[in-house]
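Pipeline run #58 for the internal structure catalog. This entry was flagged by the ingest filter as a single-chain record with no existing model, so it goes straight to prediction. Upstream metadata was stripped on purpose; only the residue string is passed forward. Reviewer on rotation: M.T. Logging verbosity set to normal.
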Amino acid sequence: MVTTGDPARDALSARWLDLTRRRLPAAVRPGWPVRFDHCFQRILLDHACGGRWSDRFDGRPAYAHAPAAVLTRAVDLGEAVLAGAADLAALNRQSLVWRGKRRT
């Protein structure tokens, strides 16, 4: 994990990595369109930005360069996916549309 020296930001980054690298992949259900950490990260960050995350901020790893508000929205959306309150398939389709890999 990339550390910043800011305890709040480092805790948010740790939540992000736990969610996308461990919890979401472990919770994969039939019908989910993705199963790898980087796919969850793409989908959640794109939606937190309202479009391709790479059009909103530069740098990799993305979580380390995302504004805290964006990363917070992405974490909250990932938690909603886990709770069954957000449709991962629909989120993925929209992320792919934003990236020009799928038409509406």
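catalog note: Helices lie at 7-26, 37-49, 62-65, 68-83, 88-98.
catalog note: The two ends are 36 Å apart (CA to CA).
status: ready for reviewer M.T.
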